[in-house]
Amino acid sequence: MALTYPEHEIVFHPQCYLSAGHFAGTDAERAAAFLEFANDPVIDAIWFARGGYGSNRILDAVMPHLGDAARRKTYMGFSDMGFLLGALYARGIGHPVHASMASSIGKNDAGVDTGWALGWLIDRDRRGLDPALADGRPAAAFNLAILTALIGSKYLPDLTDHVLMIEEVDEPLYRIDRMLFNMAHAEQLKGIAGIRLGAVTAIAENDPPFGETVDEMILRWCKEMGVPYLGRCAIGHVSTNHVVPFGVA
Amino acid sequence: MALTYPEHEIVFHPQCYLSAGHFAGTDAERAAAFLEFANDPVIDAIWFARGGYGSNRILDAVMPHLGDAARRKTYMGFSDMGFLLGALYARGIGHPVHASMASSIGKNDAGVDTGWALGWLIDRDRRGLDPALADGRPAAAFNLAILTALIGSKYLPDLTDHVLMIEEVDEPLYRIDRMLFNMAHAEQLKGIAGIRLGAVTAIAENDPPFGETVDEMILRWCKEMGVPYLGRCAIGHVSTNHVVPFGVA
Q1: Which residue has the higher pLDDT, B61 or B102?
Q2: ipTM rounded to 2 decimals
Q3: Residue partners of A17: CB distance under 8 A and separation at least 6
Q4: What sequence ranges are listed for the domain LD-carboxypeptidase C-terminal (chains A, B) (predicted)?
Q5: Domain residues for B98?
Q6: Terminus-to-terminus CA distance in chain B, angstroms?
Q7: Is the pLDDT of residue B1 over 60?
């Protein structure tokens, strides 16, 4: 970072190092930290540190209190952070972007995807964008479990005419199938332009064997949904998780 | 059965013994079997054999084809069968009832709950009803994962002024919390009279420890939902799974 982008600084909020049960701080601490940085005019972007579970728990506390500075920012992350990205996009606040997070860099990951993420964040460098975005249509990307947990709520954005990209990790096929049913029957999603499937990784054992592949499943559910299946995309819990700015890039 | 209810007969459809990957027969076979029995005027009730996963996959195929005979029937089951019970209730077809299934009888279960189920089915015997139904308010009962998978779809019934009873099994607390968020923010459920929590059993390990109990969780989410929490009820994946006829019993 210091060598590549010497004129930019990443500041980690102290809340990142807190711990309270499952979470990095209590809901109140996490909400206060987000609001503090989101509403700070000196900060250009919020790069979420990690996913896991829990950003849904602060939506009611933070969404009504985002001011002008928050509206100008870019918000970047994926997986569980889809709750916040979706809620921000639903209200037209800032520029939500699906991309890898700081915590993605690890022992088995050289950090190519975080390089793409920072490149977009700082220079709007398009090299890390999902190749499927070349069609010029607005898109949004979600972890499937997070998308389905947003369905039915005011926090699911209106994705009419958008390409919806989904990815999943650590689930058995029967649960993926159930989530695809949920997506396919969501009245809120009837107007989307099409669906692309990203990486479905670390699939948990299904006992007995499910009897279908994920490619067969997505085709069947898109048909039941009445929405075109547009093929694969290059996002997910993988070292080549690409950047998807919500809306037209 | 033969001794207790000699004048009644249980017929198992041959489809119950089929196998196709994860399912007891292909979707087409399962849909055809359900329609055959549901539309047969000689049959008084459909007692689903077992849960697991997959009744959602036949909803589009069966719901438009249920005739007069199907409208007079009682439909009884729980867990995954909540997809069908919910869809039937949403369309006002027959009498959906949450209760144990034939497969509930097993090595570690004397079958008290299946006795309650059959007692209601045959004699409208109220001894197996969930004690919470004594308040006289209409109710409906769902496995939480099934309820959340129905949210946003036309198959979720209008539960305005109903007491909603939920139960769960085999999930870690963070997933239960995420499903409760989904329920609490479902616009379709804003008008319910209140929520009761049934058994939450075989809770999977949460790493790190979640930091809240299920009772704390349900209180917090009911508050965020703006719906009264009415206390516990006696349903779930337990040997004392009580009967909950949808609507006024």
Answers
A1: B61
A2: 0.96
A3: A24
A4: 143-248
A5: 14-128
A6: 24
A7: no
